[in-house]
Protein backbone atom coordinates (compact mmCIF):
# COMPACT_ATOMS: atom_id res chain seq x y z
CA UNK A 1 0.00 0.00 0.00
CA UNK A 2 1.36 3.35 -1.00
CA UNK A 3 0.45 6.95 -0.26
CA UNK A 4 1.23 9.16 -3.25
CA UNK A 5 2.37 12.77 -2.94
CA UNK A 6 3.08 15.35 -5.62
CA UNK A 7 5.33 17.89 -3.90
CA UNK A 8 8.15 17.85 -1.40
CA UNK A 9 6.28 19.52 1.43
CA UNK A 10 3.39 17.09 1.15
CA UNK A 11 5.85 14.19 0.99
CA UNK A 12 7.38 15.14 4.33
CA UNK A 13 4.26 16.44 6.08
CA UNK A 14 2.22 13.33 5.27
CA UNK A 15 4.43 11.32 7.59
CA UNK A 16 4.69 14.09 10.19
CA UNK A 17 0.90 14.53 10.21
CA UNK A 18 0.26 10.85 10.83
CA UNK A 19 2.90 10.71 13.58
CA UNK A 20 1.13 13.62 15.30
CA UNK A 21 -2.23 11.89 14.76
CA UNK A 22 -0.86 8.72 16.40
CA UNK A 23 0.26 10.78 19.39
CA UNK A 24 -3.20 12.32 19.73
CA UNK A 25 -4.87 8.91 19.39
CA UNK A 26 -2.58 7.49 22.11
CA UNK A 27 -3.55 10.37 24.41
CA UNK A 28 -7.27 9.79 23.76
CA UNK A 29 -6.91 6.07 24.50
CA UNK A 30 -4.71 6.52 27.59
CA UNK A 31 -7.02 9.13 29.09
CA UNK A 32 -10.21 7.23 28.21
CA UNK A 33 -11.66 10.23 26.37
CA UNK A 34 -12.40 8.02 23.34
CA UNK A 35 -15.10 6.29 25.46
CA UNK A 36 -17.11 9.48 26.07
CA UNK A 37 -19.28 9.01 22.95
CA UNK A 38 -20.28 5.57 24.27
CA UNK A 39 -21.37 7.10 27.58
CA UNK A 40 -23.30 9.73 25.60
CA UNK A 41 -25.06 7.02 23.59
CA UNK A 42 -26.17 5.19 26.72
CA UNK A 43 -27.44 8.39 28.39
CA UNK A 44 -29.27 9.56 25.22
CA UNK A 45 -31.06 6.25 24.75
CA UNK A 46 -31.93 6.01 28.43
CA UNK A 47 -33.44 9.52 28.38
CA UNK A 48 -35.23 8.77 25.10
CA UNK A 49 -36.81 5.62 26.59
CA UNK A 50 -37.96 7.57 29.66
CA UNK A 51 -39.53 10.28 27.48
CA UNK A 52 -41.60 7.81 25.45
CA UNK A 53 -45.07 6.89 26.54
CA UNK A 54 -46.17 3.73 28.34
CA UNK A 55 -47.54 2.25 25.11
CA UNK A 56 -44.05 1.43 23.81
CA UNK A 57 -43.89 -1.85 25.74
CA UNK A 58 -40.88 -2.95 27.76
CA UNK A 59 -38.73 0.18 27.80
CA UNK A 60 -35.70 -1.62 29.17
CA UNK A 61 -35.52 -4.11 26.32
CA UNK A 62 -36.24 -1.42 23.72
CA UNK A 63 -33.59 0.87 25.20
CA UNK A 64 -30.98 -1.89 25.41
CA UNK A 65 -31.53 -2.87 21.75
CA UNK A 66 -31.17 0.75 20.66
CA UNK A 67 -28.01 1.15 22.74
CA UNK A 68 -26.60 -2.07 21.26
CA UNK A 69 -27.25 -0.89 17.68
CA UNK A 70 -25.74 2.55 18.18
CA UNK A 71 -22.70 1.26 20.06
CA UNK A 72 -22.07 -1.30 17.30
CA UNK A 73 -22.08 1.50 14.71
CA UNK A 74 -19.79 3.63 16.90
CA UNK A 75 -17.33 0.73 17.30
CA UNK A 76 -17.21 0.19 13.52
CA UNK A 77 -16.59 3.92 12.96
CA UNK A 78 -13.80 3.98 15.54
CA UNK A 79 -12.25 0.81 14.09
CA UNK A 80 -12.10 2.16 10.54
CA UNK A 81 -11.68 5.91 11.05
CA UNK A 82 -10.00 6.23 14.43
CA UNK A 83 -7.67 3.36 15.23
CA UNK A 84 -4.36 3.65 13.37
CA UNK A 85 -3.89 0.38 11.50
CA UNK A 86 -1.90 0.67 8.25
CA UNK A 87 1.83 1.35 8.78
CA UNK A 88 3.24 4.39 6.98
CA UNK A 89 6.86 5.35 6.64
CA UNK A 90 8.85 7.34 4.15
CA UNK A 91 9.38 4.09 2.25
CA UNK A 92 5.62 3.67 1.74
CA UNK A 93 5.11 7.27 0.62
CA UNK A 94 5.81 7.63 -3.08
CA UNK A 95 6.68 10.90 -4.77
CA UNK A 96 4.64 10.94 -7.99
CA UNK A 97 6.38 12.54 -10.98
CA UNK A 98 4.01 11.21 -13.66
CA UNK A 99 2.62 14.59 -14.62
CA UNK A 100 6.06 16.21 -14.58
CA UNK A 101 7.31 13.61 -17.03
CA UNK A 102 4.30 14.15 -19.31
CA UNK A 103 5.11 17.85 -19.50
CA UNK A 104 8.87 17.25 -19.91
CA UNK A 105 9.69 18.98 -16.62
CA UNK A 106 12.53 17.48 -14.62
CA UNK A 107 11.58 17.20 -10.96
CA UNK A 108 14.17 15.30 -8.88
CA UNK A 109 13.16 12.72 -6.32
CA UNK A 110 13.28 14.00 -2.72
CA UNK A 111 16.33 11.83 -1.97
CA UNK A 112 18.20 13.48 -4.88
CA UNK A 113 17.89 16.99 -3.45
CA UNK A 114 19.80 18.84 -0.76
CA UNK A 115 16.96 17.91 1.58
CA UNK A 116 17.58 14.18 1.06
CA UNK A 117 18.55 13.45 4.66
CA UNK A 118 15.43 15.20 5.92
CA UNK A 119 13.21 12.99 3.79
CA UNK A 120 14.77 9.68 4.78
CA UNK A 121 14.52 9.69 8.58
CA UNK A 122 12.25 11.20 11.17
CA UNK A 123 13.78 10.24 14.53
CA UNK A 124 13.18 6.59 13.60
CA UNK A 125 9.47 7.04 14.22
CA UNK A 126 6.86 5.35 12.11
CA UNK A 127 3.22 6.17 11.82
CA UNK A 128 0.02 4.21 11.40
CA UNK A 129 -3.00 5.39 9.41
CA UNK A 130 -6.64 4.44 9.98
CA UNK A 131 -8.09 2.43 7.08
CA UNK A 132 -10.72 5.05 6.22
CA UNK A 133 -8.21 7.91 6.00
CA UNK A 134 -5.81 5.82 3.90
CA UNK A 135 -8.69 5.20 1.48
CA UNK A 136 -9.66 8.90 1.49
CA UNK A 137 -6.06 9.91 0.74
CA UNK A 138 -5.97 7.50 -2.20
CA UNK A 139 -9.31 8.72 -3.60
CA UNK A 140 -8.48 12.42 -3.19
CA UNK A 141 -5.07 11.95 -4.83
CA UNK A 142 -6.71 10.10 -7.73
CA UNK A 143 -9.22 12.92 -8.27
CA UNK A 144 -6.54 15.59 -7.92
CA UNK A 145 -4.28 13.71 -10.32
CA UNK A 146 -7.07 13.49 -12.89
CA UNK A 147 -7.80 17.21 -12.52
CA UNK A 148 -4.13 18.12 -12.91
CA UNK A 149 -3.88 15.87 -15.97
CA UNK A 150 -6.62 17.98 -17.57
CA UNK A 151 -4.39 21.08 -17.40
CA UNK A 152 -2.53 21.53 -20.68
CA UNK A 153 1.25 21.21 -20.50
CA UNK A 154 2.07 24.07 -22.88
CA UNK A 155 1.50 26.89 -20.41
CA UNK A 156 3.78 27.35 -17.43
CA UNK A 157 1.26 28.76 -14.97
CA UNK A 158 3.91 29.61 -12.37
CA UNK A 159 5.88 31.63 -14.90
CA UNK A 160 2.71 33.44 -16.00
CA UNK A 161 1.95 34.25 -12.37
CA UNK A 162 5.46 35.64 -11.83
CA UNK A 163 5.18 37.67 -15.05
CA UNK A 164 1.84 39.10 -13.93
CA UNK A 165 3.25 39.92 -10.49
CA UNK A 166 6.23 41.68 -12.09
CA UNK A 167 4.08 43.71 -14.48
CA UNK A 168 3.57 47.34 -13.54
CA UNK A 169 0.42 49.09 -14.62
What attributes does this structure have?
two-stranded parallel sheet, 169 residues, 7 helices, 60% helix, mainly alpha, two-stranded antiparallel sheet
Number of domains: 1
Q: What is the radius of gyration?
A: 24 Å
- Structural class from helices and strands? mainly alpha
Number of strands: 4
Describe the biggest sheet? 2 strands, parallel
Q: How large a portion of the residues is in β-strands, by DSSP E? A: 5-15%
Low-confidence stretches: none
Shape annotation: elongated
Task: Give the topology string: H per helix, E per strand.
Answer: EHHHEEHHEHH
Q: How many angstroms does the end-to-end distance come to? A: 51 Å
Number of helices: 7
Q: How confident is the prediction overall: mean pLDDT?
A: 82
Strand adjacency order, main sheet: 1-3
Fraction of residues in H or I helices: 55-70%
Describe the fold and architecture.
With 169 residues, the chain is mainly α. It has one domain (3-166). It contains seven helices and four strands, in the order βαααββααβαα. The strands form two sheets. A two-stranded parallel ribbon has the order 1-3. The protein is elongated, with a radius of gyration of 24 Å.
Question: How would you sum up this structure in a few lines?
Answer:
By secondary structure, the chain is mainly α. 60% of the residues lie in helices and 7% in strands.
What topology emerges from the helices and strands here?
Layout (H helix, E strand, L loop, with lengths): L2 E3 L2 H24 L4 H16 L7 H23 L4 E3 L4 E3 L2 H5 L13 H5 L6 E3 L1 H19 L7 H10 L3
Parallel strand pairs: 1-3
Antiparallel strand pairs: 2-4
